Amino acid sequence: MPSSLRNILMGLGLVLLAGCASKSYVVLLENPDGSTGAVVVKGSQGEQVIDQARHGAALDGATQPAAVAEADIQRDFAAAMAARPLLPERFLLYFASGGAQLTAESQALLPKIVDSAAKRPAVDVSIIGHTDTVGRAEQNEELALKRAQAIAELIKAKGLQVHALSIESHGERNPLIKTADETAEPRNRRVEISLR
User: Does CATH number 3.40.50.40 belong to domain 89-195?
Assistant: First the structure.
């Protein structure tokens, strides 16, 4: 879901909870990456554009957007903010040439992946294997699948509990870095892990 749409939906969701407050209002929150979109509030008394994080406007559109105190945000919207689902996370793990041996840096990421997955109820995990363009396409397809399967086994051995697990091979078909055929490119020898 695009971040700006997520902010709008969050704002709309927060409005439902804000109905309990003395006056219903919308507050715009920042995206997880720190950026901020915008929300247009149209009501019986007018239209307001909120384009600054932690600013709000009355649902009837009568008042200009203004900063909302953190205490008010927590009082009025804590339950809605706590109910937000975690955003999907993506990890890239890289391999030595020609096999399923992870680089040391990628090996070190495995505990972080398992920890991130453990924070998600009923986590769905997608593992996609890739290769560079050295070798025949058919062999690369098999190698990429072998890499993806090896990573699935490694993270399961580290205690990963999943709701759904998909394992795919893209071989050399979807390179991260476009190269000519028979080019050794370390960033294309990878497995992509997505947690949802």
Answer: no
